[in-house]
Protein backbone atom coordinates (compact mmCIF):
# COMPACT_ATOMS: atom_id res chain seq x y z
CA UNK A 1 0.00 0.00 0.00
CA UNK A 2 1.30 3.42 -0.98
CA UNK A 3 1.33 5.84 1.95
CA UNK A 4 2.98 8.61 -0.05
CA UNK A 5 1.19 11.92 -0.50
CA UNK A 6 0.14 13.22 -3.89
CA UNK A 7 1.60 16.51 -5.11
CA UNK A 8 -1.67 18.27 -4.28
CA UNK A 9 -1.76 16.83 -0.76
CA UNK A 10 1.86 17.81 -0.14
CA UNK A 11 1.07 21.35 -1.30
CA UNK A 12 -1.96 21.45 1.01
CA UNK A 13 0.10 20.37 4.00
CA UNK A 14 2.96 22.77 3.24
CA UNK A 15 0.65 25.75 2.63
CA UNK A 16 -1.23 25.12 5.87
CA UNK A 17 1.99 24.81 7.86
CA UNK A 18 3.50 27.98 6.37
CA UNK A 19 0.35 29.97 7.04
CA UNK A 20 0.11 28.86 10.66
CA UNK A 21 3.82 29.42 11.31
CA UNK A 22 3.54 32.97 10.02
CA UNK A 23 0.07 34.03 11.15
CA UNK A 24 -0.53 31.92 14.25
CA UNK A 25 2.41 32.14 16.67
CA UNK A 26 1.72 31.21 20.25
CA UNK A 27 1.08 34.84 21.21
CA UNK A 28 -1.81 34.92 18.74
CA UNK A 29 -3.17 31.74 20.26
CA UNK A 30 -2.91 33.29 23.71
CA UNK A 31 -4.86 36.35 22.52
CA UNK A 32 -7.52 34.11 20.97
CA UNK A 33 -7.89 32.31 24.30
CA UNK A 34 -8.65 35.63 26.00
CA UNK A 35 -11.34 36.66 23.49
CA UNK A 36 -14.99 36.51 24.57
CA UNK A 37 -16.63 33.27 23.47
CA UNK A 38 -18.87 35.20 21.06
CA UNK A 39 -15.89 36.50 19.07
CA UNK A 40 -14.00 34.72 16.31
CA UNK A 41 -10.56 35.66 15.02
CA UNK A 42 -11.81 36.77 11.60
CA UNK A 43 -8.30 37.38 10.26
CA UNK A 44 -7.33 33.75 10.79
CA UNK A 45 -10.74 32.45 9.71
CA UNK A 46 -10.63 34.35 6.41
CA UNK A 47 -7.05 33.19 5.98
CA UNK A 48 -8.29 29.61 6.21
CA UNK A 49 -10.89 30.45 3.56
CA UNK A 50 -8.31 31.96 1.20
CA UNK A 51 -6.21 28.80 1.50
CA UNK A 52 -9.27 26.70 0.63
CA UNK A 53 -9.29 24.95 4.00
CA UNK A 54 -12.93 25.83 4.72
CA UNK A 55 -13.95 24.50 1.29
CA UNK A 56 -12.04 21.25 1.68
CA UNK A 57 -15.08 19.03 2.35
CA UNK A 58 -17.61 21.13 0.43
CA UNK A 59 -18.83 19.44 -2.79
CA UNK A 60 -17.79 20.96 -6.10
CA UNK A 61 -21.42 21.85 -6.86
CA UNK A 62 -21.34 24.36 -3.98
CA UNK A 63 -17.96 25.80 -4.92
CA UNK A 64 -15.88 23.46 -2.78
CA UNK A 65 -12.85 21.23 -3.33
CA UNK A 66 -14.59 17.89 -2.69
CA UNK A 67 -11.69 16.71 -0.54
CA UNK A 68 -11.41 13.49 1.43
CA UNK A 69 -10.45 12.30 4.88
CA UNK A 70 -6.74 12.16 4.04
CA UNK A 71 -6.83 15.85 3.17
CA UNK A 72 -8.59 16.51 6.47
CA UNK A 73 -5.95 14.50 8.33
CA UNK A 74 -3.14 16.62 6.87
CA UNK A 75 -4.84 19.89 7.79
CA UNK A 76 -5.82 18.77 11.29
CA UNK A 77 -2.28 17.62 12.04
CA UNK A 78 -1.08 21.15 11.29
CA UNK A 79 -3.91 22.59 13.39
CA UNK A 80 -2.72 20.42 16.26
CA UNK A 81 0.89 21.43 15.72
CA UNK A 82 -0.11 25.12 16.01
CA UNK A 83 -2.70 24.43 18.75
CA UNK A 84 -5.37 26.50 16.99
CA UNK A 85 -8.54 27.53 18.80
CA UNK A 86 -10.71 28.28 15.76
CA UNK A 87 -13.89 26.20 15.15
CA UNK A 88 -12.37 24.28 12.24
CA UNK A 89 -13.47 20.87 13.51
CA UNK A 90 -17.03 21.86 14.39
CA UNK A 91 -17.73 24.06 11.36
CA UNK A 92 -15.49 23.03 8.46
CA UNK A 93 -15.56 19.29 9.17
CA UNK A 94 -18.51 18.09 11.27
CA UNK A 95 -21.18 20.59 10.21
CA UNK A 96 -20.02 20.78 6.61
CA UNK A 97 -19.99 17.01 6.20
CA UNK A 98 -23.36 16.58 7.90
CA UNK A 99 -25.03 19.13 5.62
CA UNK A 100 -23.37 17.55 2.57
CA UNK A 101 -24.69 14.11 3.57
CA UNK A 102 -28.19 15.03 4.70
CA UNK A 103 -29.10 18.33 3.08
CA UNK A 104 -31.30 18.82 0.06
CA UNK A 105 -29.84 20.65 -2.93
CA UNK A 106 -31.33 23.95 -1.76
CA UNK A 107 -30.07 23.41 1.80
CA UNK A 108 -26.56 22.59 0.56
CA UNK A 109 -26.56 25.68 -1.65
CA UNK A 110 -27.76 27.90 1.19
CA UNK A 111 -25.32 26.68 3.85
CA UNK A 112 -22.23 25.30 2.15
CA UNK A 113 -21.27 28.13 -0.21
CA UNK A 114 -20.99 30.68 2.67
CA UNK A 115 -19.15 28.09 4.76
CA UNK A 116 -16.57 27.64 2.01
CA UNK A 117 -15.89 31.38 1.79
CA UNK A 118 -15.74 31.97 5.55
CA UNK A 119 -18.83 34.16 5.60
CA UNK A 120 -20.59 31.78 7.97
CA UNK A 121 -19.67 29.33 10.71
CA UNK A 122 -21.90 26.57 11.98
CA UNK A 123 -21.74 24.54 15.18
CA UNK A 124 -23.09 21.08 15.86
CA UNK A 125 -25.13 20.57 19.05
CA UNK A 126 -25.38 16.84 19.58
CA UNK A 127 -23.85 15.75 22.88
CA UNK A 128 -26.06 15.40 25.94
CA UNK A 129 -25.60 14.14 29.47
CA UNK A 130 -27.44 10.96 28.44
CA UNK A 131 -25.13 10.36 25.44
CA UNK A 132 -21.88 10.04 27.36
CA UNK A 133 -21.69 6.27 26.88
CA UNK A 134 -24.06 5.99 23.92
CA UNK A 135 -23.64 8.80 21.45
CA UNK A 136 -27.09 8.23 19.93
CA UNK A 137 -28.97 8.28 23.27
CA UNK A 138 -30.57 11.64 22.50
CA UNK A 139 -33.36 12.90 24.74
CA UNK A 140 -33.95 16.29 23.08
CA UNK A 141 -37.36 16.10 21.42
CA UNK A 142 -38.82 17.53 18.21
CA UNK A 143 -42.61 17.53 18.30
CA UNK A 144 -44.55 18.33 15.16
CA UNK A 145 -46.71 21.42 15.44
CA UNK A 146 -48.62 22.44 12.34
CA UNK A 147 -46.16 22.61 9.44
CA UNK A 148 -43.11 22.84 11.71
CA UNK A 149 -41.51 21.45 14.86
CA UNK A 150 -41.06 22.48 18.48
CA UNK A 151 -37.70 21.56 20.06
CA UNK A 152 -37.14 20.98 23.78
CA UNK A 153 -34.02 19.73 25.49
CA UNK A 154 -30.50 20.41 26.73
CA UNK A 155 -27.23 20.02 24.84
CA UNK A 156 -23.94 19.85 26.75
CA UNK A 157 -20.46 21.19 26.00
CA UNK A 158 -21.21 22.47 22.50
CA UNK A 159 -17.92 23.86 21.10
CA UNK A 160 -17.97 27.38 19.62
CA UNK A 161 -21.76 27.63 19.91
CA UNK A 162 -21.64 31.29 20.94
CA UNK A 163 -19.75 32.38 17.79
CA UNK A 164 -21.70 30.20 15.34
CA UNK A 165 -24.28 31.69 12.99
CA UNK A 166 -26.32 28.49 13.02
CA UNK A 167 -26.44 25.37 15.18
CA UNK A 168 -27.20 21.92 13.82
CA UNK A 169 -29.32 20.47 16.62
CA UNK A 170 -30.11 16.77 16.84
CA UNK A 171 -33.47 15.77 18.29
CA UNK A 172 -35.66 12.69 18.62
CA UNK A 173 -38.86 13.10 16.59
CA UNK A 174 -42.27 11.73 17.55
CA UNK A 175 -41.71 8.74 15.23
CA UNK A 176 -38.53 7.93 17.24
CA UNK A 177 -36.32 8.82 14.28
CA UNK A 178 -33.40 11.17 14.77
CA UNK A 179 -33.59 14.51 12.99
CA UNK A 180 -31.09 17.33 12.48
CA UNK A 181 -32.39 20.90 12.57
CA UNK A 182 -30.52 24.01 11.39
CA UNK A 183 -31.38 26.77 13.87
CA UNK A 184 -30.09 30.37 13.95
CA UNK A 185 -28.12 31.01 17.13
CA UNK A 186 -30.28 34.02 17.95
CA UNK A 187 -33.56 32.09 17.63
CA UNK A 188 -36.18 32.71 20.30
CA UNK A 189 -36.33 29.78 22.70
CA UNK A 190 -32.59 29.00 22.40
CA UNK A 191 -30.49 29.92 25.45
CA UNK A 192 -26.73 29.61 25.85
CA UNK A 193 -24.56 29.51 28.96
CA UNK A 194 -21.00 29.91 27.73
CA UNK A 195 -17.65 29.09 29.34
CA UNK A 196 -14.10 28.01 28.49
CA UNK A 197 -13.08 24.38 28.76
CA UNK A 198 -9.81 23.17 30.26
CA UNK A 199 -7.98 23.64 26.93
CA UNK A 200 -9.38 27.20 26.45
CA UNK A 201 -11.93 26.13 23.82
CA UNK A 202 -15.15 28.18 24.14
CA UNK A 203 -18.17 25.94 24.73
CA UNK A 204 -21.79 26.33 25.78
CA UNK A 205 -24.64 24.61 27.49
CA UNK A 206 -27.57 24.96 25.08
CA UNK A 207 -31.15 24.94 26.38
CA UNK A 208 -34.06 24.59 23.98
CA UNK A 209 -37.36 25.73 25.45
CA UNK A 210 -40.37 25.56 23.13
CA UNK A 211 -38.13 26.48 20.21
CA UNK A 212 -40.35 26.64 17.12
CA UNK A 213 -38.74 25.95 13.73
CA UNK A 214 -40.24 25.52 10.25
CA UNK A 215 -40.24 22.15 8.50
CA UNK A 216 -37.53 23.46 6.15
CA UNK A 217 -35.13 23.65 9.12
CA UNK A 218 -34.91 19.86 9.19
CA UNK A 219 -32.09 18.57 7.02
CA UNK A 220 -33.28 16.05 4.48
CA UNK A 221 -35.81 15.53 1.74
CA UNK A 222 -39.06 17.41 1.47
CA UNK A 223 -40.97 14.81 3.49
CA UNK A 224 -38.58 15.24 6.43
CA UNK A 225 -39.08 11.61 7.41
CA UNK A 226 -35.52 10.32 7.06
CA UNK A 227 -33.55 9.02 10.04
CA UNK A 228 -30.23 10.84 10.45
CA UNK A 229 -28.61 8.18 12.68
CA UNK A 230 -26.40 6.58 10.01
CA UNK A 231 -25.19 9.95 8.70
CA UNK A 232 -24.46 11.17 12.23
CA UNK A 233 -22.53 8.01 13.05
CA UNK A 234 -20.39 8.51 9.96
CA UNK A 235 -19.80 12.19 10.70
CA UNK A 236 -18.81 11.39 14.30
CA UNK A 237 -16.26 8.87 12.99
CA UNK A 238 -14.90 11.48 10.58
CA UNK A 239 -14.57 13.86 13.52
CA UNK A 240 -12.84 11.18 15.58
CA UNK A 241 -10.32 10.63 12.77
CA UNK A 242 -9.76 14.40 12.60
CA UNK A 243 -8.89 14.75 16.29
CA UNK A 244 -6.60 11.72 16.03
CA UNK A 245 -4.62 13.66 13.41
CA UNK A 246 -4.76 16.79 15.55
CA UNK A 247 -3.33 14.82 18.48
CA UNK A 248 -0.38 13.62 16.39
CA UNK A 249 0.44 17.18 15.33
CA UNK A 250 0.22 18.40 18.93
CA UNK A 251 2.45 15.57 20.16
CA UNK A 252 5.04 16.35 17.48
CA UNK A 253 5.24 19.92 18.73
CA UNK A 254 5.36 18.80 22.35
CA UNK A 255 8.21 16.39 21.66
CA UNK A 256 10.18 19.07 19.80
CA UNK A 257 9.72 21.51 22.68
CA UNK A 258 10.82 18.86 25.21
CA UNK A 259 13.94 17.88 23.26
CA UNK A 260 14.89 21.55 22.92
CA UNK A 261 14.38 22.10 26.65
CA UNK A 262 16.52 19.15 27.83
CA UNK A 263 19.31 20.25 25.48
CA UNK A 264 19.48 23.64 27.19
CA UNK A 265 18.50 22.92 30.81
CA UNK A 266 21.66 22.29 32.79
CA UNK A 267 22.08 20.46 36.06
CA UNK A 268 25.31 19.33 37.78
CA UNK A 269 27.17 21.21 35.07
CA UNK A 270 25.73 19.31 32.08
CA UNK A 271 22.58 19.44 29.97
CA UNK A 272 19.95 17.12 31.45
CA UNK A 273 19.49 15.63 27.99
CA UNK A 274 22.76 13.78 28.62
CA UNK A 275 21.16 11.71 31.40
CA UNK A 276 20.40 8.24 30.12
CA UNK A 277 17.16 7.86 32.08
CA UNK A 278 15.73 10.97 30.41
CA UNK A 279 16.91 9.79 27.00
CA UNK A 280 14.97 6.58 27.55
CA UNK A 281 11.85 8.58 28.36
CA UNK A 282 12.14 10.63 25.20
CA UNK A 283 12.77 7.51 23.12
CA UNK A 284 9.54 6.05 24.51
CA UNK A 285 7.75 9.30 23.61
CA UNK A 286 8.96 8.90 20.02
CA UNK A 287 7.68 5.31 19.89
CA UNK A 288 4.28 6.33 21.25
CA UNK A 289 3.97 9.15 18.70
CA UNK A 290 4.92 6.93 15.77
CA UNK A 291 2.37 4.31 16.81
CA UNK A 292 -0.21 7.08 17.09
CA UNK A 293 0.74 8.39 13.64
CA UNK A 294 0.16 4.96 12.11
CA UNK A 295 -3.24 4.69 13.77
CA UNK A 296 -4.11 8.19 12.58
CA UNK A 297 -3.56 7.00 9.01
CA UNK A 298 -5.75 3.97 9.72
CA UNK A 299 -8.50 6.19 11.11
CA UNK A 300 -8.36 8.52 8.10
CA UNK A 301 -8.58 5.62 5.66
CA UNK A 302 -11.40 3.80 7.45
CA UNK A 303 -13.59 6.64 8.77
CA UNK A 304 -15.84 6.69 5.68
CA UNK A 305 -16.09 2.93 5.20
CA UNK A 306 -19.63 1.77 4.41
CA UNK A 307 -19.57 -1.22 6.80
CA UNK A 308 -20.48 0.53 10.06
CA UNK A 309 -19.39 -2.33 12.36
CA UNK A 310 -15.95 -2.63 10.79
CA UNK A 311 -15.61 1.15 10.71
CA UNK A 312 -16.48 1.55 14.39
CA UNK A 313 -13.99 -1.17 15.36
CA UNK A 314 -11.17 0.48 13.42
CA UNK A 315 -12.00 3.89 14.86
CA UNK A 316 -12.06 2.53 18.41
CA UNK A 317 -8.70 0.82 17.89
CA UNK A 318 -7.21 4.09 16.65
CA UNK A 319 -8.71 6.10 19.53
CA UNK A 320 -7.33 3.66 22.12
CA UNK A 321 -3.76 3.86 20.82
CA UNK A 322 -3.88 7.62 20.33
CA UNK A 323 -5.57 8.21 23.69
CA UNK A 324 -2.84 6.24 25.46
CA UNK A 325 -0.17 8.18 23.55
CA UNK A 326 -1.81 11.51 24.44
CA UNK A 327 -1.66 10.68 28.11
CA UNK A 328 1.87 9.30 28.07
CA UNK A 329 3.48 11.99 25.90
CA UNK A 330 1.69 14.81 27.70
CA UNK A 331 2.64 13.58 31.15
CA UNK A 332 6.27 12.90 30.22
CA UNK A 333 6.66 16.32 28.61
CA UNK A 334 5.37 18.04 31.75
CA UNK A 335 7.63 15.99 34.01
CA UNK A 336 10.72 16.57 31.88
CA UNK A 337 10.08 20.31 32.05
CA UNK A 338 9.83 20.14 35.83
CA UNK A 339 7.81 22.88 37.53
CA UNK A 340 7.84 24.97 34.35
CA UNK A 341 5.80 22.27 32.64
CA UNK A 342 2.59 23.36 34.37
CA UNK A 343 3.14 27.12 34.09
CA UNK A 344 0.95 29.19 31.80
CA UNK A 345 3.98 30.95 30.32
CA UNK A 346 5.19 27.86 28.46
CA UNK A 347 3.25 26.27 25.64
CA UNK A 348 3.84 22.83 27.17
CA UNK A 349 1.00 23.17 29.65
CA UNK A 350 -1.39 24.23 26.88
CA UNK A 351 -0.47 21.26 24.69
CA UNK A 352 -0.89 18.99 27.71
CA UNK A 353 -4.40 20.33 28.34
CA UNK A 354 -5.40 19.93 24.70
CA UNK A 355 -4.14 16.35 24.59
CA UNK A 356 -6.05 15.62 27.78
CA UNK A 357 -9.22 17.00 26.16
CA UNK A 358 -8.66 14.97 22.96
CA UNK A 359 -8.27 11.79 25.02
CA UNK A 360 -11.80 12.36 26.33
CA UNK A 361 -13.41 13.64 23.11
CA UNK A 362 -15.70 11.35 21.09
CA UNK A 363 -15.46 8.77 23.87
CA UNK A 364 -12.49 8.19 26.17
CA UNK A 365 -9.85 5.47 25.93
CA UNK A 366 -11.61 3.09 28.31
CA UNK A 367 -14.92 3.32 26.43
CA UNK A 368 -13.29 2.56 23.08
CA UNK A 369 -11.19 -0.24 24.55
CA UNK A 370 -14.34 -1.86 25.92
CA UNK A 371 -16.14 -1.46 22.58
CA UNK A 372 -13.21 -2.97 20.67
CA UNK A 373 -13.04 -5.90 23.09
CA UNK A 374 -16.76 -6.53 22.56
CA UNK A 375 -16.18 -6.68 18.80
CA UNK A 376 -13.43 -9.28 19.28
CA UNK A 377 -15.74 -11.41 21.41
Count of alpha and pi helical runs: 11
Report low-confidence residues grouped into runs of 5 or more.
Answer: none
Helix share, percent: 40-55%
- Tell me the number of strands: 9
Number of structural units classed as domains: 3
Query: Biggest sheet, open or closed, and with what strands and sense?
Result: 7 strands, mixed
What is the typical, i.e. mean, pLDDT?
A: 94
Oligomeric state of shown chains = single chain
Straight-line distance between termini: 29 Å
- What proportion of the residues form beta strands (DSSP E)? 15-25%
CATH fold category name of the largest domain: Butyryl-CoA Dehydrogenase, subunit A, domain 3
| Second-tier CATH architecture of the largest domain | Up-down Bundle
Q: Determine the structural class based on helices, strands and strand pairing.
A: alpha+beta
Order of helices and strands: HHHHHHEEEEEEEHEEHHHH
Radius of gyration: 21 Å
> Which geometry do the CA atoms define?
globular
The CATH homologous superfamily of the largest domain is named Butyryl-CoA Dehydrogenase, subunit A, domain 3
**The first-level CATH class name of the largest domain:** Mainly Alpha
How does this structure look, described?
- The protein folds into three domains: 7-120, Acyl-CoA dehydrogenase/oxidase, N-terminal domain (Butyryl-Coa Dehydrogenase, subunit A, domain 1), CATH 1.10.540.10; 124-217, Butyryl-CoA Dehydrogenase, subunit A, domain 2; 229-376, Butyryl-CoA Dehydrogenase, subunit A, domain 3 (Up-down Bundle).
- The strands form two sheets. Strands 1, 2, 3, 4, 5, 6 and 7 form a seven-stranded mixed beta sheet that branches. A two-stranded antiparallel sheet has the order 8-9.
- The chain contains eleven helices and nine strands.
- The chain is α+β, with helices and mostly antiparallel strands.
